[in-house]
Design brief:
The protein is mostly beta strands. The protein has 7 helices and 51 strands. It has 2 domains: 96 residues, Immunoglobulin-like, CATH 2.60.40.10; 604 residues, TonB-dependent receptor, beta-barrel domain (Maltoporin, Chain A). Helices cover 7% and strands 53% of the residues.
Length: 844
């Protein structure tokens, strides 16, 4: 028996010895081949097993294998994977992953992407992997809601109607660029996200540069820059098809295919998808088609051409008009879904408010690698938009008397209006459905030259030129049973003329904008730790209007051209104290032209506002960063003073219209932002963010109210000093946890809080010093939960994702317009309740 025991002991000892000797420890560092920057979050897995690890913030990894030899597979979204053999304990050294996208180099130059621990700006970057995991059925801006300084909502709740504020500034004052090309409306600066509804499918990364940012275009932004880089052309042959379903009839399906890079240097990637649904809010049914095409051709060793086209043709019902909280609570569907802007006609859903638009964007990029130290990247782009928004004319459609069922926010009884219009006979329709039509042509060139003078100095500069013509008119869409409609605007040709479907009325004009400028930047690497930059730009904005609907002349008439010269200077530096700590600072001042609607106060007139002035912005920022093996953190403080903010407009109608132009009104936006990422274990990652803002108007002003002849008829005083800036939460914070169940499977939970959110209001209505304070919305916090699992499906790899937004079905007000400082009178939108989505993607 003793011998048997000894024998078993020897066997067990040999077994453990064998296991011990068969284990291996594999280490290494993964970096990006284009910028030699670390790739945090890259996946390393032992081939044929589920044993894996991920890189830390510096790109380093440690992986223990139960085998003494084998292969590890290193992958990162957007890069070509590598398979490397190992034998025993081994340090694989620095592993360089090359981009899987052809044509990325020229976009990176034009798009001015900020580099961590080098570019001295506050920046947050979201990669394609996170977008695909967390976007779900949210509006595209909502994927940024855990970013410092960002407040994003779905606004009215219709498909593509989302909005975003950055550091308290609306999208008109936030530069949004796709592949370096600006997409803010040339007339008013707005961003209409419904035009880019398919971006979530094709975005490679999205970078939010807060404050001055790293953008080199000739016209600066006030709040910051949202820099969206789409996928270019995949170098590897393959593709995927995907589908997803969600609440309220949501259905999406599509596919992507890439030819891979041929021996002759050609590659192509195409993507298309179809989306439809009933909408979370009543009466917001939607449908759309999204498409993306990217072609790349290497012409020679020094020259490459790439062509990109993408767009989203969509139409959707809207909740255009806000309501009071009490009105929204008096509906069967509840305050979150209630909508007064739809009804039934002939037994089918019919929309009072309805948006339809198609805005394809096309760009041709050329990269000339002049030599090892210099390159010229040029983008020629064009955009052709067409569509509009449905509205109503008359008094019945919006009346409580023409609702199905009890009064209030019940569906509109369009059939009753049709019957009454038919009965009107030769008197025509009392109420009709029309649309505000908008179409545009937009052409531009953005060319950037970059030259590495020596190991320390790099200069860049270029030209930014844009031409835009936007056409705007009202058009009759549906006479609702009547024979014709009479326009009541006395200053148009249509006045007193019977109008039929397709006829123009009320307004018909073109806005023409020509903008061109030069920009330059110098970066100097003082030593291994200290990097500084200086940038400057100058631009000219040329505005004209041409109108076609005036009863005093025949044909069209054009305004004189009005020019505004703007400029900007900014500079900063980043100092890497050591491998973990860095500090940065930036400062800048710029003047920019007012928007077209501030230059021509009468939207279809030709008389320019002679008092319009450039807006002035001063900004400064300090920041600190920490990068450790497990912890990454950023802290920054900002100060942005907005001087001579353009506030102009008109009151009254027809011949009794009066104009005002407020000068000297200032605003101050300042605050502190913190974001943290902590890798608690190999499988658990924790994230956090806090943004504390203090945004106020800083001056009282007065202005003359003038008639159409320019004569002063009254004086208005505005009491805005120390009022809080509205329309965005000034306090936000977020917490998140992501747990990796397996090498390619994870679950996550996010919490987002919004507070100190003051309702939007027209500051020019603050005409008395004893008006009440602006209404502050109730604070709210939301939980989101999601999961992703990647598995083998025959010969293919499949990924299943699921997400629940607003897990606890929290009721909250997301947007509000202030009326008299009270909750009872405020006009609001409620945010959505609990929603879900499930998606499947199969790669081939």
């Amino acid at each position: 028996m003793k011998k048997i025991t000894q024998f078993l002991s020897i066997v067990v000892l040999m077994l453990f010895t064998t296991i011990a000797f068969s284990q291996s420890t594999i280490t290494g560092k993964v970096v990006d081949g284009d910028m030699n920057a670390p790739l945090p979050g890259a996946n390393i897995i032992v081939k044929g097993t589920s044993n894996g690890a991920t890189t830390d913030f510096d790109g380093n990894f440690t992986l223990k294998s139960d085998s003494s030899s084998g292969e590890v597979i290193i992958t990162y979204v957007g890069y070509i994977s590598q398979t490397i053999p190992f034998n025993g304990d081994v340090d694989l050294g620095t592993i360089t992953l090359l981009s899987s996208e052809v044509g990325l180099d020229e976009i990176m130059i034009v798009a001015s992407v900020a580099v961590d621990r080098k570019t001295p700006v506050a920046v947050s970057t979201i990669k394609a992997e996170e977008i695909s995991l967390k976007l779900s059925t949210q509006e595209f801006p909502e994927v940024l809601k855990a970013t410092p300084g960002v407040y994003a909502t779905r606004a009215g709740g219709g498909y593509g109607d989302g909005r975003i504020n950055l550091r308290g500034f609306t999208s008109e004052n936030v530069a949004v660029m796709i592949n370096g090309v600006p997409v803010n409306d040339m007339e008013n600066g707005a961003v209409y996200w419904s035009n880019w509804a398919g971006l979530g499918d094709v975005t490679s990364s999205m970078q939010v540069q807060r404050g001055l940012g790293a953008s080199k275009v000739a016209v600066a932004s006030v709040g910051g820059t949202i820099n969206i880089l789409t996928k270019t052309t995949d170098a590897v042959k393959g593709g995927n098809f995907y589908t997803s379903i969600a609440n309220d009839g949501y259905l999406k399906y599509g596919m992507t295919y890439s030819t891979g890079l041929s021996e002759k240097g050609f590659a192509a990637t195409v993507s298309a998808s179809k989306i439809s649904g009933d909408g979370y809010v009543d009466g917001t049914e939607f449908s759309g088609y999204n498409y993306f095409v990217s072609l790349s051709q290497q012409l020679s060793d020094d020259h490459r051409l790439s062509f990109t086209a993408f767009g989203a043709q969509q139409e959707h019902g809207q909740r255009y008009n806000r309501s009071t909280i009490s009105e929204l609570r008096m509906t069967d569907s509840g305050p979150r879904k209630a909508n007064k802007d739809w009804g039934y006609k002939n037994g089918e859903v019919y929309h009072q408010s309805f948006n339809f638009y198609h805005k394809p964007q096309i760009s041709l990029n050329h990269l000339w690698t002049i030599n090892d130290d210099s390159a010229l990247s040029t983008a020629l782009y064009a955009s052709f938009g067409s569509g509009g928004g449905r509205r109503d004319e008359g008094s019945k459609i919006g009346s409580d008397d023409y609702r199905i069922g009890s009064a209030g926010l019940q569906p509109i009884d369009f059939d009753r209006i049709v019957e009454e219009n038919i009965a009107n006979g030769v008197n025509g329709s009392s109420d009709i459905i029309s649309s505000s039509r908008n179409s545009h042509e937009w052409y531009g060139i953005l060319s950037t030259y970059k030259n590495k003078i020596n190991d320390k100095l790099t200069i860049s500069g270029g030209f930014d030129g844009r031409y835009y013509i936007g056409s705007h008119w009202y058009e009759v869409d549906d006479l609702l049973g009547g024979q014709f409609y009479l326009d009541n605007e006395t200053d148009t040709f249509a006045f007193g003329k019977p109008l039929g479907v397709g006829d123009k009325y009320n307004k018909d004009y073109d806005g023409i904008v020509v903008r061109y400028g030069l920009f330059g930047q110098a970066e100097y690497q003082v030593n291994e730790k200290f990097n500084v930059f200086m940038a400057a730009d100058v631009s000219n904005s040329n505005y004209k209007q041409k109108e076609y609907m005036n009863n005093t002349i025949t044909g069209s008439r054009s305004s004189d051209a009005v020019n505004f010269l703007g400029f900007g200077v900014k500079g900063g530096g980043n100092y890497n104290i050591d491998g973990n700590h860095n500090v940065f600072a930036n400062i800048g001042y710029f003047e920019r032209a007012p928007f077209l609607d501030a230059v021509f106060l009468d939207e279809d007139g030709i008389d320019a506002n002679k008092d319009a002035e450039n807006e002035k912005v001063f900004s400064a920022e300090l920041g600190y960063g920490f990068r450790g093996e497990k912890l990454s953190a950023n802290v920054n403080v900002y100060y942005t003073k907005w001087l001579d903010k353009t506030l102009s407009g008109s009151i009254g109608t027809g011949e009794n219209i009066f104009f005002y132009n407020l000068l000297g009104i200032d605003a101050l936006h300042q605050g502190v932002e913190v974001d943290v990422r902590y890798k608690a274990t190999d499988n658990l990652t924790l994230t956090g963010m806090a943004s504390l803002g203090d945004w106020k108007w800083k001056s009282n002003v007065s202005a003359s109210i003038r008639d159409q002849a320019g004569e002063e008829v009254d004086v208005v005083e505005v009491f805005a000093k120390d009022l809080k800036v509205g329309d965005a939460a000034q306090t936000t914070f977020a917490l998140g946890a992501d747990y990796k169940i397996a090498a390619k499977s994870n679950i996550y939970v996010d919490y987002n809080f919004a507070g100190d959110n003051y309702a939007s209001y027209d500051v020019t209505n603050r005409a008395s010093s004893d008006l009440p304070n602006v209404w502050k919305l109730p604070d709210f916090g939301l939980f989101d939960l999601g999961a992703r699992h990647t598995f083998e499906m025959g010969q293919f790899e499949a990924t299943l994702t699921g997400k629940i937004n607003n897990v606890f079905n929290t009721e909250y007000v997301s947007d509000a317009n202030d009326i008299n400082g009270t909750a009872n009178a405020a006009q609001v939108y409620f945010g959505p309740g609990r929603t879900y989505s499930v998606g499947l993607k199969v790669n081939f």
